[in-house]
Amino acid sequence: MSLTRRQKWRLEKIQAERIARANKVADNSQDLNTDAKAQTGLVITRYGQHLLVESNSGNLVQCTARRNIDLSVAGDQVIFQATDNNKGIVTALFKRDNTLKRSKKLIATNIDELCLIVAIEPHYQFDLIDRYLIVAENQNLPIRLIVNKIELSSNIKQVKIDFAMYEAIGYPVSYLSVKAQTGINTLKAQLNDKTQIFLGQSGVGKSSLINELIPELNLRVNQISTKSKLGKHTTTNTTLYHIPSGGDLIDSPGVREFHLDNLSNKEILNGFKEFKPFINQCKFRNCAHINEPNCGVKNALETDDIHPKRYASYLALIT
Ligand SMILES: Nc1nc2c(ncn2[C@@H]2O[C@H](COP(=O)(O)OP(=O)(O)OP(=O)(O)O)[C@@H](O)[C@H]2O)c(=O)[nH]1
Ligand SMILES: [Zn+2]
Fold first, then answer.
1. Nearest listed ligand to the Cα of residue 283
2. Residue 298: which CATH number?
């Protein structure tokens, strides 16, 4: 996402003001190394009340946060101040672009793309894909679909027709075979400048893809464990990893999991974003788009502006 020069200038100004303020606070505080300037950093992981923060120069610093600061998680941009013992104190939290929550619990922030990974085997299911999309849409998170194991398909033409439906709605789709090494470089380029999260059901190849993108992942996990003195627990913590070819991945077993929290009919409708332009055309303001007369959504179905598979999925999900 490229910012206009004016937006960049505003961001820099806000940042400079925050740093100046953080320095002022630091000057009044005894526990801080007064020679150390406040710096901006990226939260790599949180463990209990501690944060592992990466400085702009790439150092990992174990930090605690001031009490008046919201709890930070992987993906957060913060201002921190080094203390004497090579540790730090987080003094400010930058405004978040977005957040990923599970059962109201904050998991990660500043996500550019949720990558939903599906596969030829176990074969992708439209209703499951739509459920993921509903959750993502309701948290305002952009989504990419990644279709893995394409070398197993005997009818790739049909696969592309199936996913053209999602492309038409506006979701980017990547085709991939980790095993046959097809589409890897294209995907790397697509992930290049973004922070992403990988989701998907068991067996679709999430771990295989992550190992492909970040071959030194285990090394990095060890490095983080040492720094945070967490031992092997780190792998279960939600952590931000840099992808060597560009971009970042926020990952943990908990992040990859997926819950369709009890969604209201309103949230379900909100998840079918291509319905939106037609909803104002319904005769009844409280139209549920099921069997009401003069329904904009049903009319759009007749004119092929809404795909019948998506409409069927909507009907199956609402209660
Ligand atoms: N044929 C084929 N198999 C693949 C491909 N990518 C991964 N696999 C295999 O699919 C199986 C599941 O892959 P994983 O990477 O463990 O899948 P996962 O999504 O991490 O699964 P969970 O850990 O259960 O969530 C493994 O046996 C992989 O070797 C591919 O492109 N083609
Ligand atoms: Zn309607």
1. 2
2. 1.10.40.50
